[in-house]
Amino acid sequence: MEILGTTLRVCVDDLDASVAFYERLSGSRAMRFERGGVSVAAVGCFLLMSGPAAELDVLRRVAATIAVQDVDEAHAVLSASGARVVAGPVPTPLGRNLIAVHPDGSVFEYADRQATS
Length: 117
Prior knowledge:
Elements: E1 3-11, H1 15-26, E2 31-35, E3 38-43, E4 46-50, H2 53-59, E5 64-68, H3 71-80, E6 84-91, E7 96-101, E8 107-112
Parallel strand pairs: 1-4, 5-8
Antiparallel strand pairs: 1-5, 2-3, 3-4, 6-7, 7-8
């Protein structure tokens, strides 16, 4: 499994103000979408999230999002390596993802950009 990059997850109170800052910082335009009652903006290597406190508390447990070529391959490698996949793979607005707990207790999202049928 090749890791293609990492996205830093940032929970924010004011998504619009944060998007403006991170667009200037990264030189990238935000891609926005909604997911489970949370407003999300992907800006460069940052994933900004804003929404109800209960939803954000869950999202804060995930340390980072790791981009991979294929979530199914990541699932196989993670499982064979001793990680526990706790959610997914499931479709997302951009591809597919899964959530895995590593043997040390760290929680990461693995995501690909493969279109779902």
